[in-house]
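QA checklist item 7 of 12: single-chain prediction sanity check.
[x] sequence parsed
[x] length recorded as 306
[x] structure emitted
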Amino acid sequence: MRKYGRRVPVECHVDFAEIVTQLWRRRVWMLAVLALSAAVAVVTVYKVSLSPPGLHTKTIERGAAETQLLVDAPRSGIGDLTRDLDPLSARALVLSQLMRSDPVISRVAKIMGVPRVAIEAQTDNSALNVPQSQLEPGQGKRANEIAGETRLLRLTYQAVPDQPTVNVFAQSDTAAEAEKLANAAVTATRQWIADTENQQLVPDRRRTVITQLGTADSGTVNSGASRMFAGLLFFAVLIAGALAILLVNRLVSTRRAERSGAAELDARRTRAATRAAADQRNGHSAAKAKALSGGGKPSRRARRSS
């Protein structure tokens, strides 16, 4: 049986060459699309000012705050060297999960005076297997990444490895509101634990003590627009413009072919009608001549000769 090799690469090269040829024929349009793509990319990254003329880097300002809470017992194990901190560390890990639960976040929303759906809370356990010497730089990185998030209010809880502490990160539109949000998260957690212990009649000596290690530190985080995003947007607009040019060119060519075909068809019909009319006239003339030669009146020349 005869086998034929695949010719897909050749077809791809032919198609690509045809595309390049069509775009080169419409190079004025491609230059316009290229200019538009560059303008969109520049506007994404920079703020254009006309007076005075210039470009200024766009910045996104978000409020961020951070605080820390200590999970302890009525008889503190922090100052007693004979006490084991592992149970408290395990409780801090569990607490970091419970702090994002609906009962706690509902209390935070009530303190902030916002709807429950306006607050998003999550737990970050990425530092549980990281040595403590590398944890602090990670906190700073987290604060810088907050600027890229766009929710109204956001809380992130992070349990510190091998320590009975939980880091609280807050994000909002302003630094003051982010600071209030971080403090409200600690207050709501403390209230929820106290209410739960009261309902279960937990003795005072066995209760959990939540201590906030200072008020929240807040500030404004600035982040410029991503140049990578601007580059992707540039190519996206460029490709979309090229596809639009090819589509319009295809539609115009199809329309012209339809008009040319219709004109050719009309011309053929006209020629056919003309030929039919001519044949009809010739047929009438032949029939008349035959009738005259068969028994009609003698011609003028014949009468003269006679």
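[x] summary fact logged: The first helix runs from residue 8 to 25.
[ ] second reviewer sign-off
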